[in-house]
Structure formats: C-alpha cells, structure tokens
Amino acid sequence: MSKMFQAGPTGETIRSDCQVFYTPGSDTLRIELKSRVEVLFSESIKNLVELTLSSLGIKTGSVSIVDFGALPFVMMAQIETAIKRAHPELKREALPDFKEHAKYASSFGRFRRSRLYLPGNQPKLFLNAGIHKPDCIILDLEDSVPPAEKDGARLMVRNALRTLDFFGSERMVRINQGALGMEDLEAIIRHNVHTVLLPKTESADQVIAMEAKVNEILKSKGLKQQIYYMPILESATGVLNAREIAMASKNNVGLAMGLEDYTADIGTQRTLEGKESFFARSMLVNAARAAGIQPIDTVFSDVSDEKALRASVQTTKSMGFDGMGCIHPRQIRPIHEEFAPTELEITKAKTIIMAADEAEARGLGVVAVGSKMIDPPVVKRAERTIKMAVDTGLIPKNWKEQD
Amino acid sequence: MKKKYEFVKNAAGRMVPTEVNGKAQFPFQGIHGYKPTGRKAAPPVSSCSDYPMDGNKIVGSIKAALEQAGLKKGMTISSHHHFRNGDLVMNQVFDAAAELGAKDLMWFPSAAFPCHEPLIKHLESGVIHHIEGSLNGPLGKYASEGKMNGLAVLRSHGGRWQAIQDGEVHIDIAIIAAPTADAFGNSTGDRGPSACGLLGFGLADSMYADKVIVVTDNLVPFPCYPWQIQGQNVDYVVVLDKVGAPEKIVSGTTELTRSPDRLYISELTAKFVRAAGIMKDGFSFQAGAGGTALAFAIYLKEMMIEAGVKARFVRGGSTKYLVEMLEEGLTDYILDGQTFDLEGVRSMRENEGHVNTSPFTSYNWHGKGNFASMLDVVVLGATEVDVNFNANVVTHSDGQMLHGIGGWQNCLFSKCTILPIPAFRDRIPVIVDQVTTLVGPGELIDVIVTERGIAINPLRTDLIEATKDSGLLIRTIQELKAEIDDLVGGIPQKPRLTDEPIGVVKWVDGTVLDVIFRIEDRR
Questions:
Q1: What are phi and psi of B491, to 5 degrees?
Q2: Which chain B residue has the Cα nearest residue A128?
Q3: Which residues are paired to B447 by β-bridges?
Q4: What percent of chain B has pLDDT over 70?
C-alpha cells in the first residue's frame, strides 16, 4: 500500500480550515468528503476538489477531506499542499481567481504606523483582518510558522493574496531566510505583494540578492510590478550595518527592528524600559532617516496591557520611529492614536503650511513664519503631520476652509 | 404513524398547519391583523375554607403535592426557567409523576435546558406526551429529529403570557421553583442559596393555573418579602434540600467577548446609535447578555459619558455592566426581565431603580400596551437575515432547530431594532435570499450591522437620512450579500427537508407564523 500524505491543521478546535489526506494510486480517483457545512456546500466542495485536482494534473489516487468550514481558497491550498508533499517535483499550481479587490497598489511614502502580523498557516485570522484597518498586513511565513508547515503556509498566503480584500492595507509578506526565502518569493511575488519583509538582515548583499531574485521572477513571467522591501534588523551585525542595508535598494521603504532576537544576540533580555536596545533603535532610526526611508519599531507583545502599549508607543514615537508591529487587532487603534500628532504639533504644522501656501502664491522662494525661515524638510514634515491628523479624524479634510 | 397536517398560506406567504397538537390555529394575518375577542381565561374560584387557617401550606414531597393537586393523565404541567441550566426541580417532578402512573402529560416550560436531558426517558415512556416551550440542548435535538409526539410550539416570552391569558394553553399544575419562600407560598427570587433575581416567567403560571406548587430550599418565616409570587395564588409549598445549582443559575461574572471581529461589530453598532441621533438625554435601550450585545452596551456607555448623556431606562437581562450604569447614574432605571449574574441579583435587592418586570408588563401583545414599543433602540442577535430583512433565530441555515425565541419577537416593536451579526460564520453566510424559518417579519427589523458594513431597511428613510453623512460604511443588504457570497464560494444549496413538521413558530398574537420541517436523515 502506498503512503498517505496529509495537509492541514491538527487538534481539537479547528475552524474555517480543513484537513486533506492523499494516497497516490494508479487506477481511479476516489474522493471522500466529511464536512461541517456538508448540508449547504457538499456539491460546491466536490466541484472544487475535482477542479483543484485537475489543475494539478492528478487523475488517480484517493483524496479524503475533513472540512471545518474552510473557504474555497483555504481548501485549495490544503489540497495542493497534500498533493505536493506526495509529488515534490510537481510544478503545476491550482490558483484561485485573482479578485479585483486584491489588485490595488501601494505607495512609497504611505503610513506604516501599524503592521499586523498574521501567521501564514492560520487562514481564519486572515479573513477579517482588513476590517480593523491596520496600515499594513503581514502574512508571515517566517517565525510564526513551524518548519514542517512552511510549504503549506506559502500556498495559503499565495491564495489569500489572490482572494481576500484587505481593504486598503499594504499587503506585506515576511519571507524566510536564505534558500527557503527564495522559494517563498517564487510562490508569492506574482500575486500583488506590495512589500517583502526580509528577516534577520545583516548585510546589503542580502537585500541585493533578494531584489535580484524578485526581478528575475518578474522578468521570466513578463510582469512589471512595483515591489518594495523592508529589511528587519535582528542582530548586532545587522544593527551595525544599518546604513548600508538601508541604502541597498531604492525600493526599500523602511527599516524594521526585531528586538527578541537582537537582545538575545547581544547577550541580554528585553525589558519594559528598553535601555538595552536604545543604541540599536537609535542607530536604526538614524540609518533609515539618512536613507530617506521609514524607521519602524518592533512589536509590543503583551496584548492585554493597553496602558503599557500606549506608553511604549510614546517612547517609540519620541525616538523618531514612524510605526511599529502589532500581533493583535486590538493593538491597532492605540498605536494609531499615540502616533497621531498632538494639538500643538497640529497648530504648528498648520501655521507652516499656511505660510508655505502664501509664499507660493506670492512667488517667493523662501517660506517664513514671522521672522523665522522654514526649510523645505520642515514643510514636508508639516504636511505629513496634517495628513495624519486628517487620517485619524483629529481635523477635517477641509481644515483650510474652516480655520 | 405520523400525523397528516393540512396547510394554509398565511399573510407572510408561508404554508402553516391549520391544527397543532389537537388545537385549531389561526394563520398569521399581518403584524396588526389579528385581534381576538372574548374574555381572558381564569382559574377556578377558591375558598379559604379549603386552606389551612394558619397559612401553612407545606406538604411533605413533590409527589405528595402532585397527588393532592389531582395529577392525572393528559394534564399540563408548567415551569419557569429562571434557574436556567441549574434547575434541579423539574426532573424530580416528572420522576414523581411517573411514579404516580401519570401519562400523556404536556410540559409547558418557559424554556428547557441541557440539564433536562433526563426527561427524554419520560418522553419515550409516554409520561410526557410533548413539550411546548423553548428547547435548548438535547431536548431540542430530540424534537429536531422528529422523535417527539406532537409539535414543538415556539413562543416568545410575551407570546407565552398571551397563550396562557387567552386560554390557548390551560395550565393544570404550575411548578414554581423559588429561591426563597414562606409556608404561605409568598416567594422571591432575589435571595437565598439559589438566588436567580426575579421570577417573572412564572408569574402568569401562578395567576392562571388551576393548582400552584411552590418548591423552595430556603423557607423563611411569614412574610417572605418582596413577594414576587403571591401566596394568595399558591396551593402547596414543598421544601427540598436544594432546588438549584447556583453556579449554573447565574454566572459569577459575565465575561465579555474577546473576539476582535465581534468587538468591532459591537462598537460599530454603538456608533450607529450615536450617529442616528438615538443616543440623547432621556433615551432608552435594551441589549441582551450575548457577547456582542454586552460589548455594545459598554461602547455605548463610553459614548454616553463622553457626550454627557443619561438614559431614562434600560431593559435587561441585567448584568454587572448595566448595574454599573445604574450605580454611576447613567440611567435612572433598569427594567429587568431576567438576571444574568450575581451583580444583577445584588442590585435587584439593593437598588430602588432596579425594577423587576414580567412578560406581562413588558411584552404581552394582548394587553393595553407594553414596554417593548417604547424602547428607543434594541440590539438583538439572529442566525439568518434575508434580503427583505426577515430574520430567523430558531433554526440554522442547515435546517437544524437550535434556539428558542425568548423575548426576541417582542423586542422587534422597539423604535429601532438593530441586529449586529457577523456576515458569515465558518463558511455559512448570514444574509440569505430567504430565511429558513421566519421568526421576525422584515418590516420590524431596521438595521443589520456586520463587520463588512451596515444595511438599513429601505423602509427607514429617516435612519438612512440621519446617518448618510456619518462616515459609517452604509451599504445595501444586497451589496453585503454579494460580497459574502463571493467570499464563501457561491450561494449555499438548500438543506433537504421532509414534509413532516416538527414545530411551529407563533407570532406574538398567537397566530402561526411559520413551520419547521424535519431535515432528511443523513446517509
């Protein structure tokens, strides 16, 4: 008897996912289905299974599905995973339809205050992630996915990218390090990934190699697509090379801090106060600013302590960061609120913008508030402050008419 | 052999049986279509000569009380569900009835819970012929599978009062489990080891039944005051060691939902209420004890504080969250229909503004008005809603009968009825073309709030107008449905139903709104 290959989660309380058991065989194709939503979807599921197998070129063997209400894109990924575990050489893909709502673009300078991490092997967490309006969504293939699940998570993330509406959030994927990461790129890059997060970056070469790989994939498929990068610094070497890493690609949009690994690397532990990481974070802020990209802080891991989260965001903001990671939707609002400009900042920014408008109207090359000259970067900063104030609902869009 | 039913089409376009459990029925005739004439039912006249002059009505056991009450074949025995899943009385009542050789009884609880699973053996042996009441847990499953004689008759809390009052259901013997009582039969729910708050669901039973038996584990010297149940209506008092399991009657603390999606829906609901101009000084609202409704109340409370707004009254299901609002002066009154946690019970004892109500004062449609229609906004759940805003709470899309109606139908009469519901559960869409079972007519349902947007009933042009510049994501119900159908992979197929009814859904006026058919056996 031939060996059985399996995909999908195990455990007691599985929701919105399914298990697939596949035994290669030579004669006929046998499909068995047990589903929590069988009464409502048995026909639809049978059609989907047949379609998926046929796009993978599987005509024989036995496939058994135990379904706990998986959406079609989830079930397709689990089937493909089981099949590819049996046939690692298989190149064919079973792609769900690429939905129009999954095709929006991002931009270089957009807000990246909050980046919500979603473990790549837990699709039930993806489904409504966008409604909480994080600035960015990170479909993670790296640390939150166990080694044995890497292949499946990659296909799950790919299918999610083609299917789900993230309601305007930037679509990020954190790939694995090294060769595994290159395989990740092969699977995901063509499906409107906006930004690739490169973990444990220690040198400019790693960024360059990644970008070369991305360009190679896009070229081979005849695709033109803007891909941004965000290297994550998680070691002493990475921090010391922050400047060259930040400068390594014109498509870098930010530099992110990963403190769990960094503190271990320098031989200490993370504290709430964060004295141990002051140098690294400050170094990162300076490197990113010198390169004209966004410095992004690490995650705050105590989900239930909103007060401490807010305090930590204040520190983060005061150090010069533009954003940080989050691991639960409930962290998003406190982060946005703490990053929002203060009343004083808004008033100052308004004055500067008004002065700039006036200078432009009068054809002056120099902006002045009272007797003080204002440099262009300060004007730009003020514009950003106002944009964020509008975005967080602190001032109306048409504030100029109202003031 | 299964009974053959004749069907007639009602005003909602549903085919409903003309007879249920041996009684002729009126089909639903529209929300204001059916008005009965005649007089209310009444219990027989009693004489003090037949009762002990010293006021001591204690008898030795449940069995003795049933015997003295004249238990016989075919009688109807009623009970309230204030002990929820912690009731220790009703299983003993039917064990005693079985020992007395009674057959073909009808049990008429306001609701049954998983703790009543042992009654299945009495259904199978014929001691109980059938049950009319909300069926939760194993008894619900038993009825869903078509194993029960007769049909499950699902009534709202107000509808149950109406049925008793109008004489549609005649109660021969009412069992009132009471956390505290005196020997005369005065009873209260707000104290004692099995304290449950109030006893409103048993009030009609005590007033209209031929015989009334109070069962308590906390006998106090006369007078037991407050007397939520009046001893004047009581025939016998039975004292047991234990009538309820406190931890299953009320929860120690009511837990809030932690699901970010549900919290999102709750907050969006509160924002809608604020944006629509409903949240203003002197307003009123009702929100149940379900996770989403509870979280809604908390978000609304924050908004009330921020805006400096106070409510005149809130309707419970009371919980510690409503009690906090009362004690912080954010509402003058809690008008409580059932108490869900220990803080609610305490508050009912201590706070003058925490008022106990019954389905008569709040919900009974065959009365001279009720509270439900005076509420500014009510927040309820649903298993399904259709594109015409009709809603379902008793079955799921796969046809399984799952829940009772509770006060749900009665609350639909509020000035603004909002259903905050997830747009899909697992893979199952909540917005459908037509609800599996019609429990709430769409003309009474005003707003659906999902995590993917808010749909306002087109009939409510006022709400549409009031919220059009609110910045909230307001969409048509068809748009919401299309988005979810696309996500879940198309419109689900229909469950295969037999032509064998297993239950009917009554409207608040006693007419038949819909019928529930048994689903086909799985392979």
A1: -75, 130
A2: B261
A3: B418, B456
A4: 99
The answer to whether A132 contacts B426, with C-beta atoms less than 8 Å apart, is: no
A18: chain B residues, CB-CB within 8 Å: none
- For chain A, the straight-line distance linking the first and the last C-alpha, in angstroms and rounded, comes to 79
Answering whether pTM is above 0.80, one says yes
Q: Residue B489 is nearest to which of A44, A132, A329, comparing CB atoms? A: A44
Token pair 């239930």 is at which residue? A304
CB half-sphere exposure, B429, CA atoms < 13 A: 27
Q: How far is CA B453 from CA A131, B264, B422, B475, B483, in A?
A: 10, 11, 10, 6, 11
- Per-residue pLDDT tens digits for A226-240: 999 999 999 999 999
CA of B507 vs chain A CAs: smallest distance (Å): 28
Contacts of B512 by beta carbon, 8 Å cutoff, 6+ apart: B10, B16, B17, B20, B25, B26, B27, B28, B504, B505, B506
Residue B159 has pLDDT above 50, yes or no: yes
**Closest chain B residue by Cα to residue A164:** B487
DSSP codes, A144-162: TS-GGGHHHHHHHHHHHHH
Domain covering A100-339: architecture: Alpha-Beta Barrel (3.20)
Nearest residue in chain A measured CA to CA from B399: A39
List Cβ neighbours of B513 (8 Å cut-off, separation of 6 or more).
B10, B12, B14, B16, B28, B438, B439, B441, B504, B505, B506, B507
- Cross-chain Cβ contact B489/A68 below 8 Å: no
d(CA B31, CA B6): 23
What confidence score (pLDDT) does residue B404 get? Answer: 86
CB under 8 A, 24+ apart: contacts of B327-331: B327/B351, B330/B301, B330/B304, B330/B305
| Mean pLDDT, all residues of chain B | 94
Six-digit token string for B82: 């204030």
Domain ranges of chain A: 5-86, 100-339, 343-402
Name the CATH superfamily, with its identifier, for domain B54-132+169-249: Glutaconate Coenzyme A-transferase (3.40.1080.10)
Specify the pLDDT at position B444: 98
User: Nearest CA to B202 among B181, B223, B221?
Assistant: B181
List pLDDT tens digits, range B455-465. 999 999 999 99
CB contacts < 8 A (A, B):
63
- A92-129 pLDDT tens trace: 999 999 999 999 999 999 999 999 999 999 999 999 99
Tell me the pLDDT band of B401, cut-offs 50, 70 and 90: confident
| Residue B385 φ/ψ region, left for φ over 0, alpha for ψ in the -120 to 50 degree band, beta for the rest | beta
Which one has a higher pLDDT value, A1 or B269? Answer: B269
Task: State the pLDDT at residue B502.
Answer: 92
Q: Topology of B260-494 in CATH?
A: Glutaconate Coenzyme A-transferase (3.40.1080)
Identify the pLDDT of residue B94.
98
Q: Is B174 in contact with B205 (CB distance < 8 Å)?
A: yes
Listed in sequence order, the DSSP H helices in B100-168 are 120-125, 138-144, 157-165
Digit-coded pLDDT (tens) for A267-278: 999 998 899 999
Alpha helices in A64-177 (DSSP H): 72-86, 150-163
Domains of chain B: which residue ranges? Answer: 54-132+169-249, 260-494
Residue range A56-71: average pLDDT?
96
φ, ψ for residue A104 (rounded to 5)?
-70, 160
Q: Do B451 and A128 touch (CB under 8 A)?
A: yes
CB B448 within 8 A of CB B477: yes
